[in-house]
Design a protein that fits this description.
This protein has about 230 residues and is α/β, with parallel strands linked by helices. The chain has a single domain (about 1-230), classed as Rossmann fold, CATH 3.40.50.300. It has helices spanning about 45-50, 80-90, 105-110, 120-135, 150-160, 180-200; strands at about 1-15, 15-30, 30-35, 60-65, 70, 90, 170-175, 200-205, 215-220, 225-230.
Amino acid sequence: MITLHDVTLTFPDGDRLITAVDRVTLRGENGVVTGITGPSGSGKSSILALAATLIRPDAGRVLIGDGADAIDAARLSRTEATALRRERIGIVFQQSNLLPSLTAREQLRVMAELGGGSRARRSAVRAQADELLEEVGLADHADRRPHQLSGGQRQRVAIARALVHDPDVLLVDEPTSALDQERGAEIMRLIARLTHERDTATLLVTHDLVHRDALDALVTVVDGRIARAPARVE
């Protein structure tokens, strides 16, 4: 579970401050895909960056987990936030950002070496690589490099890579923006299936509501504020 509680984020703009996120409260439940939509520049990606601990809010809390065990990421140092991100948060960006020289399998296995960890943990991550590639339908493409994959296939590798540490939270930014409608629908269905099967709390930013049937809940952001509270998608 992830909870953004009364978070505010500002940026300097000359002599004044621009409020990108204005006292937003939002919860991502386990096993639920919560879509975040709104016009361009409304603050959607800033909310996702706060959830990812990539930036720190001016005020408010970013809680990873639930109850007494929840960690307030807004209070962590940069080193602590990096460790939390590595262990408990998976991120999928608009572009797949795959390393050109690595195969699909290696894209996942390299995550085992980032940040150290025990030998057993690194071994478990490496072993899970092939399982995840099979889950996203790319078992037969494990030895292919990015230039040998389609856009949809590259995005599938990116999703598998984000899940390789079995995170509590999955954050996805415009996963269909570079794909045609058919491939976009496939990616959205894949994210929904993996969220439900793995009981992950997923926040997904999208401007394209053609695929809203893959979402479990939807929240609308306008001018940095929640304009429409999360509602179940029928």
